[in-house]
Structure formats: C-alpha cells, structure tokens
Amino acid sequence: MSCGDPHETDCSEVLDHLYEFLDKEMPDGECTKFEEHFEECSPCLEKYGLEQAVKKLVKRCCGSDDVPTDLRSKVLGRIDLIRAGQAVPEQDVTSPDLLAPEVPADLSSGTGPAPDAVSAAATEQAKQ
C-alpha cells in the first residue's frame, strides 16, 4: 500500500515494520521517523490505528490466557539460542501437544462474535 505521495520514509517500510513500532521494539530514532510519517500519511495512520485497535482487542479478550509451561520453555530456549548466535532447530513449537487444550467457550461453541463484529469493534476502537 502506498498513498502515492513521496515521503522521507516510504509507506512500504512503515507497513513492513508496523508491528515493531506497535510493540515498541525499535530504536527511538526509527520511532520518530514513523511518527513523522503518520503525521503526513493518512492511509498509513489509518492502518496503524486499525492494527493498534486489533491488538488492544486481542489483549482484552485473550490477555489472561495461560501459556503452557512446555511451550513457554521451548520459546524462551529458542530466544536464548538466537541471542547466542546458535542455529535454531527446525522444530514446530506450536505442536498440538504443547498448545492449551481448552478453547474459550465463545470460540469453540461458535457463539462468539462474528468476524464482522470483531472488525467493526476494531474499527470503532481505532476511531477513539
């Protein structure tokens, strides 16, 4: 996506690193570039607002779910390997035996909000 206008920081770069910005995982100088871009580019600002709203919605709905101990240990182990510069084994950390066996009732029963309702709620959050 691009608004078609020239910017110091290209729209594609901003969108490629949007989650790093949202998660505050980038240096301050990079954050400043993104903030300046959002001030002059309404399509990217809108995308940022939508992604921010979805993130808040997920946190509110799923933020208290417990992570299985085995999965947490494997993920932390991989992070340690990556930080140490070692090769990471090609193994799926999301294997079914590691995932939480329970699915929230509103998701498993199909009585939860419809995708359109979630999207509408995310859009409404973005406007606030």
Automatic annotation (TrEMBL):
Stored InterPro entries: Anit_sigma_mycothiol_RsrA, Znf_put
Domain of life per record: Bacteria
Putative zinc-finger domain residues: 11-44
Region (Disordered) location: 87-128
Ranges that cross the membrane: none
The name this protein goes by in its record: Anti-sigma factor (TIGR02949 family)
UniProt source species: Streptomyces candidus
Lineage: Bacteria, Bacillati, Actinomycetota, Actinomycetes, Kitasatosporales
